[in-house]
Amino acid sequence: MIIQYIPWLIAVLTLIAVVWIVIVSWRNGISPMPTSRQVRQVVIQEVNRIPGYADIIEAGSGWGTLGMDVVKHCPGKRLTGIENSLIPLWTSQCLTWLSVGFNRAGAVIRTERGGQGNSFKGRLRFIHGNIYTCSYAHADGVICYLFPGAMTRLADKFKRELPPGARVISVCFALPGKEPLRTLICRDALRTKVYVYAF
Ligand SMILES: C[S@@+](CC[C@H](N)C(=O)[O-])C[C@H]1O[C@@H](n2cnc3c(N)ncnc32)[C@H](O)[C@@H]1O
């Protein structure tokens, strides 16, 4: 009897999830739209230019695809994603948790074969927070894909809080009143710009 209601339950839950995402996106001024593969490659290249074991904050981490790719391709970097939209946040946390499990299984096999295991464990976390109130004081780098209003609000905060030498890597939108160190143009259809700043 109950089984016949399962498709309806799934449909209702999906509708609630979509409406919830839309409401939070409307309040935030931006949806959790992920960056394309080509843009992620440019961000990864720039994160790899930050020397040493750097702490990276992703301001607005959405579904977690950018953060996961950065940690996967940037050895020694640790990333904290800050997100306030719960459904994308929970998705990113589940994906990280699954990857840690799969990586651990893979690492055992690789280690038995003499190779090295590479895991997200301890290097990647996605947390619930607000990008306008969280602290950037310990970040060696910030990555973000936001919108012009957010960049205006964050410009002063970055200036006050970021340690000297920290990098800000911003997809699409420039920081007002600050000259970028370089501006890169991605090979995607939109020729997306990535702005890199040094503080
Ligand atoms: C365009 S998405 C980018 C997602 C991810 N960084 C990427 O590049 O794939 C921007 C994200 O910022 C989040 N966001 C916007 N305002 C926020 C705030 N005040 N606090 C936390 N997250 C916020 C949105 O919910 C959204 O998921």
Protein architecture, described:
This protein has helices at residues 6-28, 37-47, 65-73, 86-112, 148-161, and strands at 55-59, 78-83, 124-128, 141-144, 167-171, 182-185, 193-198. The chain is 42% helix and 18% strand. A 7-stranded mixed sheet has the order 3-2-1-4-5-7-6, with helices on one face. It is α/β, with parallel strands linked by helices. It has 5 helices and 7 strands; from the N terminus they run H-H-E-H-E-H-E-E-H-E-E-E. Helix 2 (37-47) packs across helix 3. The structure holds S-adenosylmethionine (SAM). Residues 28, 30, 32-35, 58, 60-62, 65-66, 82-85, 88, 130-132, 145-146 line the site of S-adenosylmethionine (SAM). It comes from Paenibacillus barcinonensis. InterPro entries: FAM173A/B, SAM-dependent_MTases_sf.
Helix proportion: 40-55%
Arithmetic mean of pLDDT: 92
Q: CATH topology of the largest domain, anyone?
A: Rossmann fold
The dominant shape is: globular
Q: Mind telling me which CATH architecture of the largest domain this is?
A: 3-Layer(aba) Sandwich
| The CATH C-level class name of the largest domain | Alpha Beta
CATH superfamily of the largest domain: Vaccinia Virus protein VP39
Low-pLDDT parts are: none
Our count of helices gives 5
How many domains comprise the coordinates? 2
The percent range for strand residues is: 15-25%
Terminal Cα separation, in Å?
63 Å
Strand order of the largest sheet: 3-2-1-4-5-7-6
Total E-strand runs: 7
